[in-house]
């Protein structure tokens, strides 16, 4: 025991490193080399699971802002990458090694480049202060690892198509101390890059308004960046202590607005959308109905639903193979998977192959049904599975869902297009409420006020550039 204690003490001493952003010594079991290696791995997973927004000019613009900020940080020599990801949520995040991501959703809600710099500086601060690496060190010391507690183990994830456990590092929540430090570093970097860091206050107020409009649901950024009490007061205290003269600092409102003119707003219906429990995919021309009351989700690679108790899941994704039977046999032949008899047939006139299956996990045994369907020169894999103890309660609802896959033929659903942000300059004094009476928009007046960061009835002066959401409402929505 004494030797073990001495060994542990030696390990803790040698694992202490100087935090590059704070200058303090701290316990760190993840080296910078490991951090960079992990970042490269996670970056490829982010791109695969979320997707990069297809606007090269906007990508270049955000990268230029990011590089300007990173050059002002304590780790300028990292191989920094900055990406706009194709996600409608209001969010920004960073992973080890210098990878920073801004969603198109938060870009649509910000009103100037200084706000963008404040948010990106905050995320750069998480990297320079090595906050994610610190959390991983703490979990290693506690023997927890990075496993996420779901009904699917890492082994069954191969079958079920769950997100990689490695990707879950993106969703590690930061502590209040980490958030305070990232705020301080973000203000430091944006100030050094000659941005008006006071705009960070407007970002926080915008996030608060989103939360107020959506009830108890947090914006994605606040969900992964817990609010450290009175965030605005804390930021103002940092700014006051800095005593920086921002008289000549950059804000760049109109230049920023021009950069996001035409950006997609909200979800992209061409990638599929829900109307209640029904899911429609206009590009791939199919539809499927999930059980009523189940929680649904649509990602780049999979669409699915799970029970509120998270004890049963249904998912649909593309399958490898030239036929339903070939894809089914490849799936059922996997090691540790116990498969029932493979049967052929039709699902709404489409060639299909199906079988039951079971798989043991560390916690339970999963039971389910697999259906493979040929449609439009593509094979689709539909899985429904749950815990052995409760599968009987969900089996019938799952069977109906798997059997609901069918071609999509409704012209209105097939032709639906995404909504976008459009700019115009006011020629008179008016309000968002008055403008909405004259310029129909598919979104609420409150949303239009939110993306312009004004009150709906606040007077707006002539010459102001206003952001407006244009397009059609999704079929079947208010």
Summarize the helices and strands and which ones pair or pack.
Layout: H1 2-14, E1 16-18, E2 25-27, H2 32-49, H3 56-70, E3 81-85, E4 92-95, E5 99-103, H4 104-109, H5 113-128, H6 131-142, H7 157-160, H8 176-192, H9 199-213, H10 220-224, H11 231-242, H12 253-260, E6 264-265, E7 273-275, E8 278-281, E9 286-289, E10 295-298, E11 303-306, E12 312-318, H13 324-332, E13 337-339, E14 343-347, E15 350-360, E16 365-375, E17 378-387, H14 391-402, E18 406-407, H15 411-414, E19 419-425, H16 432-438, H17 445-451, E20 465-470
Parallel strand pairs: 3-5
Antiparallel strand pairs: 1-2, 4-5, 6-19, 7-8, 8-9, 9-18, 10-11, 11-12, 12-17, 13-15, 14-15, 15-16, 16-17, 19-20
Helix pairs in contact: 3-5, 5-8, 5-9, 8-11, 9-11
What does this structure look like?
Helix 3 packs across helix 5 (113-128) and helix 5 packs across helix 9 (199-213). Mean pLDDT is 85; it is low at 3-14 and 139-171. This protein has 17 helices and 20 strands. The strands form five sheets. Strands 10, 11, 12, 13, 14, 15, 16 and 17 form an eight-stranded antiparallel beta sheet that branches. A hairpin with a 2-residue loop joins strand 14 (343-347) and strand 15 (350-360). It has 478 residues and is an alpha+beta fold.
């Amino acid at each position: 025991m004494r030797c073990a204690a001495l060994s542990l003490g030696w390990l803790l001493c040698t694992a202490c490193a100087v935090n590059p952003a704070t200058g303090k010594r701290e316990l760190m079991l993840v080296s910078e080399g490991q951090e960079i290696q992990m970042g490269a791995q996670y970056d490829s997973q982010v791109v695969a699971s979320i997707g990069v927004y297809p606007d090269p000019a906007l990508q270049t613009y955000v990268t230029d802002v990011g590089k300007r900020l990173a050059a002002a940080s304590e780790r300028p020599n990292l191989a920094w990458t900055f990406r706009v990801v194709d996600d409608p949520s209001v969010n920004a995040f960073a992973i080890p090694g210098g990878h920073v991501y801004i969603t198109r959703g938060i870009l649509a809600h910000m009103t100037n480049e200084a706000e963008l710099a404040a948010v990106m500086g905050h995320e750069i601060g998480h990297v320079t202060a090595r906050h994610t690496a610190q959390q991983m060190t703490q979990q290693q010391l506690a023997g927890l690892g990075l496993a996420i507690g779901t009904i699917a183990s890492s082994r069954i994830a191969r079958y079920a198509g769950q997100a990689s456990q490695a990707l879950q590092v993106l969703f590690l929540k930061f502590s209040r101390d980490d958030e305070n430090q990232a705020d301080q570093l973000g203000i430091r970097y944006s100030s050094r890059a000659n941005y008006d860091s006071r705009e960070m206050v407007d970002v926080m107020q915008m996030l608060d308004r989103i939360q107020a409009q959506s009830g108890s649901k947090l914006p994605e950024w606040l969900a992964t960046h817990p609010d450290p009490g009175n965030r605005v007061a804390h930021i103002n205290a940092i700014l006051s202590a800095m005593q920086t003269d921002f008289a000549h600092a950059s804000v760049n409102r109109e230049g920023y607005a021009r950069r996001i003119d035409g950006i997609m707003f909200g979800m992209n219906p061409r990638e599929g959308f829900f109307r209640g429990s029904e899911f429609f995919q206009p590009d791939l021309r199919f539809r499927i109905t999930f059980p009523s009351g189940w929680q649904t989700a649509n990602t780049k690679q999979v669409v699915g639903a799970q029970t509120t108790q998270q004890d049963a899941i249904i998912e649909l994704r593309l399958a490898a193979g030239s036929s339903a039977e070939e894809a089914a046999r490849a799936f059922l032949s996997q090691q540790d998977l116990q498969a029932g008899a493979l049967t052929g047939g039709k699902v709404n006139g489409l060639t299909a192959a199906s079988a039951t299956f079971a798989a043991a996990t560390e916690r339970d045994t999963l039971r389910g049904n697999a259906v493979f369907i040929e449609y439009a020169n593509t094979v689709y894999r539909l899985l429904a599975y749950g815990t052995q103890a409760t599968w009987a309660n969900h089996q019938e609802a799952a069977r109906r869902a798997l059997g609901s896959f069918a071609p999509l033929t409704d012209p209105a659903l097939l032709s639906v297009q995404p909504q976008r942000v459009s700019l115009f300059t006011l020629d008179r004094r008016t309000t968002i409420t008055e403008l909405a009476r004259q310029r129909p928009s598919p979104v609420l007046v409150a949303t239009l006020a939110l993306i312009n960061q004004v009150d709906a009835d606040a007077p707006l002066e002539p010459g102001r550039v206003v952001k407006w959401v244009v397009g059609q409402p999704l079929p079947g929505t208010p």
